[in-house]
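Quick one: structure tokens for this chain, please?
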Amino acid sequence: MSEKNWFSRLTRGLKKSTSALTGNISSLFTKRKLDDEALEELEELLIAADLGVTTSARICANIARTRFNKDVGEREIREALADEIEAILTPVAKPLIPDPAHKPHVVLVVGVNGTGKTTTIGKLARHFTAEGLKVMMAAGDTFRAAAIEQLQIWGKRTASPVIAGKPGADAAGLAYGALQQAKEQNMDLLLIDTAGRLQNKSHLMAELEKISRVLKKIDPEAPHSVLLVLDATTGQNALSQVEVFQQVCQVTGLVMTKLDGTARGGVLVALADKFALPVHAIGVGEGAEDLRPFDARQFAEALCGLSEEDANK
């Protein structure tokens, strides 16, 4: 998929979020002064679009710095918003790059059930095998038979080996065995799926700690990356999920899925602003190509409803 086609896909995928963010800007800013009342209304719009209270207040303060009490139009506000959002997102837009010094680079993929962890692993495997890397996957969500089957399907699609046990098997033991085999087979990348039952946080914490502990018996630095997969439809709840998983394991980066099914895509801006964790990729659909490395400017322009013509200037 070309960059232009991806921008079109991203723009379509973010349509609900764009409407939530900019839908009322046209009625709010038809050449009016950016006074205190207008700023307050703009801030309320941003909060309603899931950018969060703190982030929304700072964006409005930055826009007001150069435009307060001046006549502004809808277009100018959209462009100013895109610039502010890009400034927040640029420091965190970092692709996942396996370290060739590790053979394999071990990625532990975590997140609550239903966020799309297993599909994300499959799409990452597709991306990295296309780049010529040898990838292995481990079906560490041993409580869901569907997750094991799903990963095996992705294994066939990408011609990548999948290490799986019986449903209910010990996830840590499976991860240990997978890393042993990945080393023996000289793999570049090992992607490990995990369960995501938040109902019992202490059990989840114990399981993830155990997985990390047994991996370190083979490679003291493993896992080299801990990827948290978030579902955009959860909105502000994504922030509390980051906090929980930060307590459970050292999250090194984020992937946000399902941006095409929600008006809450603005939460990605709040996440970047609050946690400053790398955002490696975003998903705007079920297709294998609908998960792509995160680009701050593209996202900001698509979210603020700026056209492809603007993006290509």
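The radius of gyration is 21 Å.
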